[in-house]
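> call design_seq(struct)
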């Protein structure tokens, strides 16, 4: 029996072994087969060359200048300069040139999806009073790679910081723009700046005549997410028929170096800012090249970027998650104001003309105005109420309740809200959770933003524009209605939002949305208080929590102007200014079907129509011309609000005739000199 079992086992093993097919060794897979970039790296005569099928990048190892050959056009980035990097060591701040590093290693770099070079800098020294020529405990690692089928150039920077810290880094260097035709700028809603523009140009220091004093003492810096500098995190250039875009992929602590003297050319390049005093994390930009293209192509490339990263949330998605948003489409907006009450002793208070300091319109008077609008033919309306807090507009934030007694208190505010519901109007409040007034009941210095030290000039915007000072670590300003104020650490903003609106709920007042002022306009603010440190990224995170709570508990969410980090959270923005050189609708070419914007009121109706924006109510509804124009804007918005703006073009050499095109084929043609417009197909009113 044992022999039988043994033979059976041997037989089974033989059958198994006979069925095994030993695999032959396969040849290695080529790079193209596993989709690695078809890019090679070589070195000859002091030049490192990254060669793709479309683009070639040449790095000079002597001065770190970069040339990109993209089809028929060369794009040149200038060499290393003496102020490449701002460093702090042993309490001393100083600039360094990258090429002055004692040790520079350049080597091939291949991640499997991008291929290029890695440059490592070490052994920096500074002959200052405190550092005395000693080697700094600091290294910098840069990578320059071609990525993807389009061979886009991706540049990344990482600082290896110990005692020495990187406070600012200008890299990759600015483009040599001597032969660039236009620079495409994303401050406010979009600009084309010709290379030879005859006037000195600056993103936010160009103001209308008569208002020069507004920025005369402005010490603000260019930075990301300040709407006047940065409505979207990209810029570009056009040279002959070719174009390029630079997308700032890590935009939380970013800026740009900018100079445009009278007659040009424009100097523009990335600048990385410190996060709580150090570079802290990797920084990245992406450059994309178009052999044939213009600002429209650049907008569409950025649109794909924000879609890929989740920053683009369409209005269709927003209406699906909150049906009230759909009711904004095609209706005009109205802003009402209850109480203006300048604080005695504040900058705006006028002791010689006391009648200017105080003005009240009661909630009941405002409700009556709404009834008159309904009787005058305004069937649908979105109403935002400002000046409702206890002491009035811009007073005692974030402790704004109870509602202004002078305007009618809790009962009056409820009657106003009930009137809106009765008339079928949508309604919300103008609200604010950044300014931190010293007379707010809950004011406490520990919750105010602290800067890094007590000695340096305050950096918090907009105090840098309107006048600012420090008391210890805390920056203050006195410009708005409420007088002296600090800035609330954004970590504490959501709690105040919840507290205020829940108190309204307890009084049977439930708004249908909230307009959270300044969040989309002012840059995020850091806080160096060690008990609750706040990075710029943290600041935006907590602002986003406020937006999300308002959407979930109220309905519609709006903000001021709308730097594009807010797009996932808000449904509409008030209108940022038009461009100040050659205005182009860059923001709308990217985001028209993601966020509603007015893009100008009736006084600038051509711009509003061109951009398919929403209307505002005329001051005089008996004016038939203005009312007819408002209805045209509303009808166009009804048609195109949920559609992509697919194109924009100038129809004359003077940039006075323009045409926009939307995804359904609708075109809007305007003539600024004649003051005329044409919409095709025609609107049905």
């Amino acid at each position: 029996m044992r022999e039988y079992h043994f033979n059976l086992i041997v037989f089974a093993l033989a059958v198994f072994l006979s069925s095994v097919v030993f695999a032959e060794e396969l040849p290695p897979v080529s790079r193209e087969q596993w989709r690695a970039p078809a890019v090679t790296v070589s070195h000859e005569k002091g030049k490192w060359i990254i060669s793709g099928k479309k683009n070639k990048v040449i790095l000079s190892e002597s001065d770190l200048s970069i040339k990109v050959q993209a089809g028929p056009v060369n794009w040149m980035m200038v060499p290393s300069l003496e102020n490449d990097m701002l460093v702090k060591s042993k309490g001393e701040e100083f600039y360094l040139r990258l090429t002055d590093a004692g040790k520079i290693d350049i080597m091939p770099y291949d991640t499997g999806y991008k291929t290029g070079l890695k440059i490592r800098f070490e052994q920096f020294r500074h002959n200052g009073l405190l550092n005395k020529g000693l080697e700094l405990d600091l290294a910098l690692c840069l990578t320059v790679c071609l990525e993807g089928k389009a061979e886009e150039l991706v540049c990344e920077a990482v600082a290896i910081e110990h005692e020495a810290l990187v406070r600012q880094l200008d890299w990759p260097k600015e483009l040599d723009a001597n032969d660039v035709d236009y620079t495409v700028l994303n401050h406010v809603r979009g600009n084309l700046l010709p290379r030879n523009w005859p006037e000195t140009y600056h993103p936010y220091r160009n103001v209308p005549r008569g208002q020069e004093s507004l920025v005369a003492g402005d010490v603000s810096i260019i930075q990301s997410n300040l709407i006047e500098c940065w409505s979207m995190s990209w810029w570009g250039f056009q040279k002959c028929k070719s174009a390029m875009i630079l997308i700032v992929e890590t935009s939380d602590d970013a800026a740009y170096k900018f100079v445009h003297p009278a007659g040009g050319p424009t100097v523009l390049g990335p600048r990385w800012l410190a996060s709580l005093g150090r570079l802290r994390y990797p920084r990245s930009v992406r450059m994309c090249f178009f052999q044939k293209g213009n600002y429209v192509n650049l907008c569409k490339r950025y649109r794909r970027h924000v879609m890929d990263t989740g920053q683009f949330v369409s209005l269709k998605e927003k209406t699906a998650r909150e049906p009230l948003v759909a009711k904004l489409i095609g209706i005009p907006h109205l802003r009402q104001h209850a109480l203006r009450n300048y604080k005695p002793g504040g900058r705006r208070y006028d002791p010689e003309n006391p009648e200017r300091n105080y003005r009240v319109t009661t909630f009941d008077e405002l409700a009556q105005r709404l009834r008159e609008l309904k009787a005058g033919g305004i069937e649908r309306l979105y109403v935002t109420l400002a000046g409702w807090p206890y002491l009035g507009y811009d007073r005692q934030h974030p402790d704004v309740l109870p509602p202004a007694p002078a305007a009618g208190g809790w009962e009056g505010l409820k009657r106003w809200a009930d009137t809106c519901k009765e008339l079928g109007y949508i309604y919300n409040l103008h609200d604010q959770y950044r300014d931190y007034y010293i007379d707010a009941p809950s004011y406490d210095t520990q919750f105010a933003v602290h800067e890094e030290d007590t000695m340096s000039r305050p950096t918090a915007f907009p105090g840098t524009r309107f006048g600012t000072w420090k008391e210890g670590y805390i920056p203050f300003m006195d410009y708005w209605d409420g007088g002296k104020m600090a800035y609330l650490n954004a970590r504490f903003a959501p709690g105040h939002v919840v507290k205020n609106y829940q108190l309204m709920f307890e009084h049977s007042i439930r708004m249908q949305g909230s307009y959270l002022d300044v969040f989309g306009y002012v840059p995020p603010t850091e806080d160096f208080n060690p008990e609750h440190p706040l990075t710029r990224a943290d600041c935006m995170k907590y602002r986003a929590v406020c937006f999300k709570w308002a959407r979930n508990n109220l309905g519609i969410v709006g903000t001021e102007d709308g730097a594009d980090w807010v797009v996932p959270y808000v449904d509409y923005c008030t209108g940022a200014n038009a461009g100040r050189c050659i205005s182009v609708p860059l923001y709308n070419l990217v985001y028209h079907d993601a966020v509603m914007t007015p893009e100008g009121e009736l006084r600038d109706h051509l711009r509003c129509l061109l951009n398919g924006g929403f209307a505002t109510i005329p001051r005089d509804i008996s004016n038939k011309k203005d009312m007819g124009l408002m209805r045209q804007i509303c009808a166009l918005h009804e048609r195109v609000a949920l559609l992509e703006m697919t194109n924009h073009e100038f129809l004359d050499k003077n940039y006075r005739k323009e045409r926009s095109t939307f995804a359904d084929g609708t075109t809007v043609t305007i003539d600024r000199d004649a003051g005329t417009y044409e919409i095709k197909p025609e609107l049905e009113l």
